[in-house]
Amino acid sequence: MALRKSRLKLGELLVKEGLITNEQLEKAIAVQKQEGKRIGEVLVRLGLVTEKDIVVTLGKQLNIPYASLAKGLLEPDPNQDLEKLVPESFARQYCLIPISRNLNSLTVAFSDPLDVLMIDNLKKMTGCDVNPIVASESDIAQAIDKFYGEKNLLKEAISKSYDEEQEVAGITEIVEEESLSLDALIAKAEEAPVVKLVDLILRQAIKDRASDIHIEPFKERISIRCRIDGVLYEIPPPARHLLLAIVSRIKILARLDIAEKRLPQDGAFIVKVENKIIDLRVSTIPTVHGEKVVLRILDKSQVPLDLSQLGFETKDLENYRQAIQSPWGLVFLTGPTGCGKSTTLYASLNEIKSPHKNLLSIEDPVEYRLDGINQVQVKPEIGLSFANGLRAFLRQDPNIIMVGEVRDLETSQICIRAALTGHLVLSTLHTNDAPTAVSRLMDIGVAPYLISPSLILVGAQRLVRKLCPECKEAYEPTQEALGKVKLNADLIYRPRGCDYCNQTGYRGRSAIFEIMLSNERLKEAISRGANYQQLREIARETGMKTLYENGLKKVEQGITSLEEALSVTLIGEA
Question: Is residue 294 within 8 Å of 385, Cβ to Cβ?
Fold first, then answer.
């Protein structure tokens, strides 16, 4: 096999292909030494290349075929017992999947065909010559799940729960759920089938990149839905009689009171999946048919902590970076819940943190733990509110303060005072667009003469789903379909659906921004108490692009569909 002769490193191959520069490679190598990750992972995370760039380059340079999941080229032959030849643990450890066997030749898809030691081990283990093809790590991971049957295990576990329900119903009358004693509840929650079922639901949701899991009780059934890229998708639910056991199992993991079913509860626990530590936040509420549970999945590896990867347009990113590099002042991000404000703030802190600066944050809750930043969790039950925490921060010699959310006059006044006395303050508000943030501060009682000198920038944001890169298709929209929408592109893209995106047509999300940078005209208008419409007109005249305009740019660039962009913006915003 030609791979043994080729000892070129991945970074060198990418430089040779012109995909990255030597300077970018040196930067990635420096990051790699700090994090201990593979160079390919680092380059992708830094946004310098895509997974597809890497595998296509490898295939081209090593003269081996490239295969993708979307084209159906990563489906192992089901009749050759390949799962026995190559164990699942080995496949997952080295990110490879056997495709077919012909006599003594085994075709295998690798994400890293340069790992000759691993390939030698594979040859010894299987007793076959290895015929390599190359594929992206994410494609192979999905193919492994599909082939080795974790999804099938979930289906089997759910199916078995129905069989058990029928068996119980056929032998004896089912015990009323509410009459189970505390000891019986704990015993039921610790039974192997329930433990396995909850484990599989969590693992599958994490692998599908879900942000939330909803477990909802109804009169005669359970509903389980996962939120992926902002949209809820239903998965086959287990039998109704397992609700109490599933809820109790989750409560035990989150250290909640399993006997308390009348009041809402909040908790958290940590799981480790494929060497990744993932935080899960648990919330329960009582409904008329039982307790509903929502689990928030906080997977740090899925969160881009790099401002250049979030979706800023070039000029907006330049203005935003200028603002967060200011020595003092106030920067606000606005938008509804779940629009990515916290992610943008974390990426901002990650960019400006330094051993020479003291960074503090107060949050509710602390979603991701960042090295080099002193993060404080709000605890109202013991008197640790945003306002009290901020007062303490001002005695901690801070340079930069991040406040999870400004909710009241007291908190906003302390933020402004901190900004006016030489500190950079980053925070969020719940408003629909950037100019409205100023009106909201005035509405809660902040004097205009305090807002004007302290405010540096307000950024409104939304999240749009990105079209699947494997199956999106170009088309020319009709004038009837466009209506009042004006595009600077003849061809745009729409979703189609493939295995890579689970037939949704979308994979991942990107932010769209509306960046209002303070200037002399805006400062003067704020000082005299100008209304929202006047501020908006001045901001537009001085260069602000609206959410709607930046959403259409994403459409023209082929990043999202027209329908998706319009679903989170308003034509009237133009």
Answer: no
> Helix/strand/coil (H, E, C) string of 202-265?
HHHHHHCCEEEEEEEECCCCEEEEEEECCEEEEECCCCHHHHHHHHHHHHHHCCCCCCCCCCCE
Report CA torsion sign: 315, 320, 323, 324: negative
Distance from C-alpha of 497 to C-alpha of 51, rounded to nearest angstrom:
20
Task: Report the sign of the C-alpha dihedral through residues 230, 233, 235, 240, in that order.
Answer: positive
Question: 17-28, pLDDT tens digit by residue?
Answer: 778 888 888 888
pTM of this structure = 0.70
Per DSSP, the residues of 364-377 read SS--S--TT-EEEE
Check the CA dihedral 542-547-548-549 and report its sign: positive
The tokens 């935003």 sit on which residue? 320
Q: State how far the Cα of 457 lies from the Cα of 474, in Å rounded to an integer.
A: 37
Distances (CA, A) of 137 to 51, 95, 211, 335, 567: 7, 7, 21, 34, 32
pLDDT of residue 32: 77
Residue by residue, DSSP assigns 466-477 as EEPTTT-EEE--
First-to-last C-alpha distance (Å) of the chain = 59
The CA distance from 273 to 145, in Å, is: 13
| pLDDT the model gives residue 450 | 93
Which two tokens mark 542?
């001085």
Q: At what angle do helices 182-189 and 243-253 cross, to 10 degrees?
A: 80
